[in-house]
Amino acid sequence: MTTLQSKLAEARSQGRAALIGYLPAGFPDVESSVRVVQAMVDGGCDVIEVGLPYSDPTMDGPTIQRAAGMALEAGTTPKDVLAVVRATAATGAAALVMSYWNPIERYGVEAFAADMADAGGSGVITPDLIPEEAGPWIAASDAAGLDRIFLVAPSSTDARLKLTCDASRGFVYAASLMGVTGTRAKVSGTAERLVERTREATRDSGLPVCVGLGISNGAQAAEVAAYADGVIVGAGFCQRVLDAPDLESGLDAVRAFAAELGEGVRAAAR
């Protein structure tokens, strides 16, 4: 069992959803991003998605694009990302990488999987990679003992849901809306129905279904936690660092935000 699987099982045993936070490695710089991750964990995050900054983030909204852009300007490399993964794993949280496929392919698929495992990472989320084209990654992640997380969306057919869930390990990432990342005033009405449909596709495996895109406060976290196995939040954490006058203020804001979200997922305990 990977640390990710263990954390999700622990949350489930407590009758609650897991809290999953996202932050680009190297934002605002590598050393500071490690401190932000620690604040996220201190506030209550069970799992951290460490973003691999990429120059063509087509699925990301303006907040995460800005954060990732700052990380790239600071010179963040894939090796730095793995260093942040190692530091994240040392906090006791499950450490994932979220990355577009191109940087992993350029790094070397087998090498990335091996180095990720060596850093203590649990798995990788590949939002722009579909199972039909993931043969090399499936083989490499199997060899390294990594979880692999693919995405489903409201537009996914039942057949695609089944295909994607069967290829996933750790959890299935349910993108709650069609569009780019970013906070929203309310959670998409399609989210709960997508989780229901995805659960049908995971009936035999019992694979957890976690929801992301658009969650911006504790009340929304509680709403999603009532029907999902995990609540994924990214832009809200990035925005608090961007808005802070200095790093220490940003850490305080991140810690408080994680605590608010944690209260939300626990309020929905079932």
UniProtKB/TrEMBL annotation:
It comes from the Bacteria. SUPFAM superfamilies: Ribulose-phoshate binding barrel. The active site is at 49 (proton acceptor), 60 (proton acceptor). GO terms for molecular function: tryptophan synthase activity. Its EC number is 4.2.1.20. InterPro entries: Aldolase_TIM (IPR013785), RibuloseP-bd_barrel (IPR011060), Trp_synthase_suA (IPR002028). It catalyses: (1S,2R)-1-C-(indol-3-yl)glycerol 3-phosphate + L-serine = D-glyceraldehyde 3-phosphate + L-tryptophan + H2O. Keywords: Amino-acid biosynthesis, Aromatic amino acid biosynthesis, Lyase, Tryptophan biosynthesis. Pathway: Amino-acid biosynthesis; L-tryptophan biosynthesis; L-tryptophan from chorismate: step 5/5. It holds the Pfam family Trp_syntA. The alpha subunit is responsible for the aldol cleavage of indoleglycerol phosphate to indole and glyceraldehyde 3-phosphate. Belongs to the TrpA family. This is Tryptophan synthase alpha chain.
